[in-house]
Amino acid sequence: MSTSRRAVLGMIATAAVAGPLAGLSAPAPALAADLYDSNTDLYADPNLTEGVDYARRYRRHALLDNTDGQAFPFPRTAIIAPHGGGIEAGTSELCLAIAGYHPATLAVTPTGGVVHDYWMFEGIRSGGNADLHVTATHCDDVPALSVAASALNVVALHGCTPASAGLSSTAQAVAVGGRNAAFRAQLIAAFQAAGFTALDATTIPALAGTAVDNIANRALLGMGAQLEITTPLRTAMFGTNTRPQRRHTTTQLFWDFVTATRLAITQTEATQPIP
To answer: What is the pTM of this model?
Structure first.
């Protein structure tokens, strides 16, 4: 099936399913490294089967304010992993844990802790999952856009190589991008305080995450944060780095990273009073 045919099917599917969202500007053609122009393009490929080749998971938390004078919380921060499963290993598990759910049991962790909305796309094939990569500026999955757009802040999780961040091949580091400068600063400070190597990614074009259409910046504020985590750091977060076993073999390093991210989220939310 040709890319052009997939693109046509993708536009038809968007018009049929997305409704008002079809009015959004169409994504640019796929990048050289991407086989698919968008999530819609990928979903339209008859050679792929959801639940066999890929999976999507998300959670929206029910909230109710039915009183005359009392204000109740609304979704403040959403966690997004657009390249989970076998595409950028470890980002699915991090997405769940940062959202407040143990990746193995889905129990609220820590018990009684704050939970966040989340969305992830996962490659679940035994191999070749890199073919399912859709760049973050082309993410047009309707639940993903809805989760992002209903929150003030987004944290998007990605994997990168050390070389792409200008680091040595063994560097365990996180490059923090996105359009929200204050959020970036909170995240970098929290990671560094926890002993992680953290750098501002906005000076690294490939990792900056500052495009307006990036899913990290599709929040209510029009800006968010993007975490590009190097392969050595993600590998060190798991005792057994396979999709079936990662969720069961998280290391202390994994939980230290989760704790630092959640601390930065809490600190950022504290500066955003509820109207």
So the answer is: 0.87
